[in-house]
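Hey, I was hoping to borrow your eyes for a little while. I'm sending you its amino acid sequence along with the backbone structure tokens. Take your time with it, there's no hurry, and the full record follows here.
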Amino acid sequence: MSAMLGSLDLDSFLSPLQSREKSQASQGEEEVCDMFPSLTYKHRVIGCVSCMGVGLVSLGGSFFLVGPKKQINKMFHERRRIATILYLGSLFLTLVVAFAFHNVPGQGPLLILLMACQYVAIGWYCLSYIPFAREMAQRLFNRVYSELADDES
């Protein structure tokens, strides 16, 4: 057994895998550098962690409205079910698109769309805890839409 392990050159086996992984990482870093040339690597990491943290804080932010235990118990209440599913689904899809689909055309705009869905969903979710807030928001959106529709006519 030890003779077999001694003859196995693990470095020569892993070398192609490591070089391919390094080339993919450097290619991704080059793309980011092209988009944000003045940011250092440290600033990019801080930005990434901050954005991910803000997304998770958005979910926990509504704990302040009703308390964490009550919120978890009521997340899938009929009134909040769609907003909860939309938020958690768009959060999951954002992570999948960001980390699993490298070098896919249209990844950036798709990520922005998914993040917008997250914020709309968490906003709508939080409004469900404030009496009459959803109704007021609907009236506001209807008024803005009708004004925009009238301007186009």
